[in-house]
Design brief:
Strand content: 25-35%
Oligomer: single chain
Helix content: 25-40%
Structural class: alpha+beta
Number of helices: 8
Length: 221
């Protein structure tokens, strides 16, 4: 409940990681609509492109597309434990990412507390980079709770909190070294906190503007 001291901004931490927070009002939108979008948009790259044309270029799924489209039940459960491979530029150069969506419980949330705080959904993911051969570069969540008119999305990104190189043991020598503060500061793109904050604010403002019309016209497609 309530708000944190920083709801919009970023900070570079002493451990070399970067924390980003963005608050996006989303009038006339529900948590169900947000979950529908995260299930629906990766089916076709065009849907991903129209979300943010200047920065979104394509996306793929790790799931069988026919099976994915046929999934039933709550929209949120349809995209859980599925990985998207978007090609995008958050402002630090084009990268092919891996975004694995996981249930909020697996991310660390106590979902029993959601009802009392009017939480409608939380989108949680672990983010890697295919181009940089990183299975984990960041963690993120979009915390969506009911407001007076629609919902508000409180986005959080922990960039470089626990970097994992593909094919190597998490506690091995290489991964231990790249998680040293001075190495992280050299590894993470310069200005990534500012870039991510701007990108997220624009991206979800775009979604807030177009999601109601898309949902009501295409939710059964």
């Amino acid at each position: 409940p309530g708000y944190q001291p920083m709801e919009n901004g970023y900070v570079e931490l002493p451990n070399g990681s970067v924390f980003v927070a963005v608050l996006t009002p989303m009038p006339d939108i529900t948590g169900e609509m947000v979950d529908w979008w995260f299930w629906w948009h990766p089916i076709n790259s065009l849907r991903y492109k129209i979300w943010y044309p200047q920065a979104h270029f394509s996306t793929k799924l790790d799931a069988d597309l026919e099976e994915y489209v046929r999934r039933k039940g709550p929209y949120r459960a349809r995209y859980w434990n599925t990985t998207n491979y978007p090609v995008e530029d958050i402002g630090t150069g084009i990268d092919t990412l891996s975004i694995t969506f996981i249930p909020p419980e697996d991310f660390g949330f106590d979902t029993k507390r959601f009802k009392e705080s009017a939480v409608e959904t939380v989108v949680c993911a672990k983010v890697g980079s295919i181009d940089k051969k990183l299975t984990q570069l960041a963690k993120m969540c979009h915390f969506v709770r009911r407001g007076s008119n629609g919902v508000e999305m409180r986005s959080r990104f922990w960039i470089g909190l626990d970097i994992q190189k593909k094919g190597l043991k998490a506690d091995g020598l290489i991964n231990t070294l790249i998680n040293k503060p001075m190495v992280k500061k050299r590894l993470l793109p310069k200005g990534i906190g500012h870039a991510m904050a701007i990108h997220c604010a624009q991206e979800y403002s775009n979604l807030a503007n177009m999601l109601p019309e898309l949902f009501y016209n295409y939710k059964d497609s």
